[in-house]
Specification:
Layout: H1 15-21, H2 24-27, H3 31-47, H4 53-72, H5 84-96, H6 109-145, E1 150-155, E2 158-164, H7 165-190, H8 209-215, H9 225-230, H10 233-260, E3 267-268, H11 287-310, H12 324-348, E4 350-351, H13 353-362, H14 367-376, H15 381-398, H16 407-413, H17 421-424, H18 427-432, H19 442-463
Antiparallel strand pairs: 1-2, 3-4
Helix pairs in contact: 3-4, 3-8, 4-5, 6-7, 6-12, 6-19, 7-10, 10-11, 10-12, 11-12, 14-15
């Protein structure tokens, strides 16, 4: 067993205890970050006179060789090692001898793993942001193409007022814009370097922590060594942000599932993102949407687990914190997969505009506008509400929408109605006169689409 701490112990660790304690099975994901952090550490040690230039060059060459061999598959990371730090250091010593034993000068595995995790999460946030950006670009295209696509808007899953597909999709666009902003905030808040914090109380070596932070692309060093090794706030924040992303995806998936049903028929999901039934040949199931909806709980579970793990941990480092890795890795992989698949599904989906418009008409979504018509002709709103309720009841009995009810029947309920009622309650009028910013009218919607376009362009430039 390759261990970095054997000197204090007189007995071999029981194999079961060793296996239970080991993290190599999952922290091997960090091999690149661990070597990157070690290289920066060695450069700093040499700059501070703690290592000679010759020792620095030997160690850097050895680390580069390990990285190259792992990536080319000629060096395998195995369970012989307790963790990724042990693997790197043991292989370094095998390759370059005593100089390799100086790699760990001025640091602990506590600040080392804190660094590795931050470097890894930082890279993952960048990738997740790119996936969210791509999804927003697809939604932006759908919005641009559907400013005049009428559909029912809902409250309580009941048809309420007419909106447009651009307006409906735009609500999700706002959600994902907030998600993107949260990821940016987390990146900025976590981007401080813990290396040099030691086990918990720093070190007596004259380290240049600012140099190490700069070499690794951090804004600066962390300011409290105890917090440096015991902070997992950034992971909790990330899991919270990922849970919110999944919640947004799940809500949208639920709507796609409803829209795909025989009762709605609002959408046609592309064959590549749906499946059939083994016994019912007519079925076309929205499997991707259902799986994304189902995997949401998995990410919620990761967040709850880490919060529960951290709630009773005294300062500073405790081994419980090792539990942060597997669940975080799984949540990240889950969200990345869901974002990619959901984006592909939305990019290839077809919208049944005729069905959407027909549904809006037959759902009496223009009833509020009929009431507004009466109010504009001097009828008190409460009376107008009752009159339109009677109109809707008549239409339900006749199985027709409001705009197909003859004028004489309108007048029989209220003589205030005239021929212009039909223009007042047309879906086009109902939508197009709502032009306050944020509303579904084309004037307002065009402004929002333009703003979103400028926002996405600015993100693409900042990502480069």
């Amino acid at each position: 067993m390759a261990q970095l701490w054997g000197g204090r112990f007189t007995k071999e660790t029981d194999q079961l205890v060793y296996n239970f304690n080991a993290s190599i099975g999952f922290d091997q994901k960090f091999y690149k970050q661990d070597i990157e952090g070690s290289m920066a550490h060695v450069k700093m040690l040499a700059a501070c006179g703690i290592l000679t230039v010759e020792e620095k060059d030997q160690i850097l060459a050895g680390l580069s060789g390990i990285l190259k061999d792992v990536e080319e598959g000629t060096l395998e990371i195995t369970s012989e090692y307790e963790d990724i730090h042990s693997f790197v250091e043991a292989n370094l010593i095998d390759r370059i001898g005593d100089a390799g034993k100086k790699l760990h000068t001025g640091r602990s595995r506590n600040d080392q793993v804190a660094l590795d995790m931050k470097l890894y999460i930082r890279d993952e946030i960048v990738e997740i942001k790119e996936l969210v950006l791509h999804l927003m670009e697809v939604l932006h295209r759908i919005m641009k193409e559907n400013i005049h696509t009428y559909m029912p808007g809902f409250t309580h899953l009941q048809k309420a007022q007419p909106v447009t597909l651009a307006h409906h999709v735009g609500a999700y666009m706002e959600m994902f814009k907030r998600d993107f902003g949260r990821l940016c905030d987390i990146y900025d808040r976590m981007n401080y370097c813990p290396l040099g914090a030691g086990a918990l109380a720093g070190t007596t070596y004259p380290l240049d922590r600012e140099m190490t932070a700069s070499l690794l692309g951090f804004y600066g060093p962390t300011l409290n060594s105890m917090d440096s090794v015991s902070d997992r706030d950034y992971l909790i924040e990330l899991l919270s942000a990922l849970s919110t992303i999944m919640m947004h995806l799940s809500r949208f998936c639920e709507e796609v599932i409803l829209w795909n049903s025989n009762e709605y028929q609002f959408v046609e999901i592309d064959d590549s993102y749906s499946t059939g039934s083994s016994i019912m040949p007519q079925k076309k199931n929205p499997d991707i949407a259902e799986l994304v909806r189902g995997k949401t709980g998995r990410v919620y579970g990761a967040m709850t687990t880490l919060l529960t793990t951290m709630k009773g941990i005294p300062l500073a480092y405790n081994k419980d914190m090792q539990e942060d890795k597997e669940l975080t890795f799984d949540a990240i992989d889950t969200v990345k997969g869901c974002l990619a698949l959901f984006t592909g599904m939305m990019d290839t989906i077809s919208f049944r505009k005729d069905k959407m418009e027909d549904s809006a008409k037959h759902g009496f979504t223009n009833a509020t506008d009929a009431a507004d018509y009466l109010v504009n002709h001097g009828v008190p709103f409460r009376d107008a509400h009752g009159i339109v309720g009677r109109l809707v009841l008549t239409c339900i009995e006749k199985k027709i929408p409001l705009d197909e009810l003859p004028l004489e029947e309108y007048k029989a309920i209220s003589p205030v109605f005239e021929q212009d009622i039909y223009e007042a309650i047309s879906l086009k009028t109902c939508v197009e006169k709502r032009n306050t910013i944020g509303a579904p009218g084309p004037e307002a919607m065009t402004k929002v689409v333009e703003e979103n376009g400028a926002y996405l362009e600015s993100l693409k430039h900042s990502q480069q």
